[in-house]
């Protein structure tokens, strides 16, 4: 008869539960994988599958701690924080793209064209959602979801499971990374904003030259048409910019987990 002691059972559970919560936190916070349209069972099944594949590759020994103790609970929370931090980096990239769409839609006069987005659980502008879909397609085209899984797998060796976790200065760096929302969002929206600014200046001059002209009847369809035209012209140049922005996010994620280079299996 096979007998298993409580210490052996705790060791087996710790070897699987702690990596599982890091992977689950990543999947819950990362774009594409963490989309609310993906069923919860699929997310949990994917996390369990990745954990089964990753656990044998962990080189550093796990801490000899009871997973149900206070220290074990602290380690569990640390793994969740690490997973959320890694997923949050790429989430900021997608929010920056949607921010660009928000600015463009506001200047085009489409601020009223909003709908409920289940991914962000809030109201999203139509143009912002459109650019978000373009960013999602670019993310899948460069196998970003596979790179993210490879990074979380390699993070167990560069940032081993323990009570240390991520250093506090790293959280300051992560908070500063949030500035990419406004910087990259404005850079993506700048071509369309420039064309719309010139259009508004021309309409202002036209109003002063012909006061009898109904500027509201002419201005709205004109700015809307020029906005869509510039968006259609500049959309072809968005792909390399989005790819560069996503790769920059992966470089930041690598530095977050002390990984010098992402090695895709």
Automatic annotation (TrEMBL):
Pfam families: Bac_export_1 (PF01311). It is a multi-pass membrane protein. It is found in: Cell membrane; Bacterial flagellum basal body. The keyword Transmembrane helix applies. InterPro entries: FliR, T3SS_IM_R. One of its GO terms (biological process) is bacterial-type flagellum assembly. One of its GO terms (cellular component) is bacterial-type flagellum basal body. It comes from the Bacteria. Keywords: Bacterial flagellum, Cell membrane, Cell projection, Cilium, Flagellum, Membrane, Transmembrane, Transmembrane helix. Belongs to the FliR/MopE/SpaR family. PANTHER family: FLAGELLAR BIOSYNTHETIC PROTEIN FLIR. NCBIfam families: fliR. Role in flagellar biosynthesis. This is Flagellar biosynthetic protein FliR. It comes from Nitrosomonas aestuarii. The lineage of its organism: Bacteria, Pseudomonadati, Pseudomonadota, Betaproteobacteria, Nitrosomonadales.
């Amino acid at each position: 008869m096979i007998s298993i002691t409580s210490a052996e059972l705790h060791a087996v559970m710790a070897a699987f539960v702690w990596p599982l919560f890091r992977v689950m936190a990543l999947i819950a916070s990362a774009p594409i994988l963490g989309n609310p349209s993906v069923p919860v069972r699929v997310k949990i099944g994917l996390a369990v599958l990745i954990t089964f594949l990753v656990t044998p590759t962990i080189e550093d020994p796990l801490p000899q701690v009871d997973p149900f103790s206070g220290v074990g609970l602290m380690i569990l929370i640390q793994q969740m924080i690490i997973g959320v931090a890694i997923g949050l980096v790429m989430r900021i990239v997608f929010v920056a793209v949607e921010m660009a769409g928000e600015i463009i839609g506001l200047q085009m006069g489409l601020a009223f064209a909003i709908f409920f987005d289940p991914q962000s659980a809030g109201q999203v502008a139509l143009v912002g959602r459109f650019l978000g879909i373009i960013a999602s397609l670019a993310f899948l085209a460069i196998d970003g979801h596979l790179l993210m899984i490879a990074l979380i797998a390699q993070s167990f060796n560069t940032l081993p499971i323990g009570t240390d976790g991520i250093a506090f200065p790293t959280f300051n760096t992560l908070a500063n990374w949030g500035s990419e929302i406004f910087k990259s969002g404005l850079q993506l929206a700048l071509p369309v904003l420039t064309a719309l600014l010139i259009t508004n200046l021309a309409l202002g001059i036209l109003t002063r030259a012909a006061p009898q002209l109904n500027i509201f009847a002419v201005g709205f369809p004109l700015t809307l048409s020029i906005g869509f035209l510039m968006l259609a012209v500049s959309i072809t140049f968005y792909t390399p910019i989005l790819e560069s922005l996503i790769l920059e996010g992966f470089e930041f994620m690598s530095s977050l987990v002390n990984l010098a280079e992402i090695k895709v299996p």
